[in-house]
Specification:
mainly alpha; about 50% helix
Length: about 180
C-alpha cells in the first residue's frame, strides 16, 4: 500500500532524523505520537503531525504495531529514504518515469507532474476538497523536493516555465 501524505522536505537528512526521533521507542497511540511530533518538531497542528507520522511509516522509519506507533531501528540514510519513497509513497513511480523523460531543455515541473498523475488522484480526495487540484499540485512540488533531497531528482537552473512555478527537475545522480 502506498501512502498519500508528503510533507515539506527538510533541509537535510539530519532534520528528517529529528522527526523520526520524536516518535517514541515504546509504542504509543496516534494521538500521543502526534502530540510528541507537534511539541518536539514545532509543527503547527495535529494534522501536519499525522501526515509526518504516515510519511515516516512509508519511509520505513516508523512502524505501526498492535499497540501503536514506534520508532523503527533504522537510520534515515539516502538509500533507505529512496527505497521508502519508491515503495511506499503514492505516485513516486510515475514521478520517476516522468523524470526519466525530462531533459535540461524540458525539465519536469510540479505542474507537469500533476498533469501526468491527475487521473490517479483518489476519487475521495477529489470529492472532499473543492480545491483538490491546487492541493495535489502542491503535493507534486513537495514530492519533487523529496526526490531532490535524496538525489533522485536534480533542480535545473534557469527560468521557470511560468511565473507561478518553481524549478524544473531532471533525473538525479542516484536515479
Amino acid at each position: 500500500m502506498r501512502l498519500k501524505p508528503v510533507p515539506e522536505s527538510p533541509a537535510g537528512l539530519d532534520a528528517l532524523r529529528e522527526y523520526q526521533r520524536a516518535v517514541p521507542l515504546v509504542p504509543g497511540d496516534t494521538d500521543d505520537c502526534c502530540a510528541r511530533l507537534v511539541r518536539r518538531c514545532d509543527l503547527p497542528d495535529r494534522q501536519t503531525a499525522n501526515d509526518w507520522l504516515a510519511f515516516l511509516r512509508a519511509l520505513g522509519l516508523v512502524e505501526e504495531t498492535p499497540r501503536g506507533f514506534v520508532r523503527a531501528d533504522a537510520e534515515p540514510t539516502p538509500e533507505r529514504v529512496r527505497e521508502g519513497l519508491r515503495d511506499g509513497v503514492l505516485l513516486v513511480p510515475e514521478a520517476l518515469a516522468a523524470l526519466r523523460d525530462a531533459s535540461p531543455d524540458d525539465p519536469l515541473t510540479p505542474d507537469d507532474l500533476f498533469a501526468a498523475t491527475r487521473d490517479r488522484v483518489p476519487r475521495h480526495d477529489r470529492a472532499r476538497n473543492p480545491d483538490w487540484e491546487t492541493a495535489w499540485r502542491d503535493r507534486a512540488a513537495r514530492l519533487l523536493g523529496w526526490l531532490a533531497l535524496v538525489d533522485l531528482a536534480t533542480p535545473v537552473a534557469g527560468e521557470p516555465k511560468s511565473p507561478d512555478e518553481g524549478p524544473g527537475y531532471v533525473a538525479g545522480d542516484a536515479f
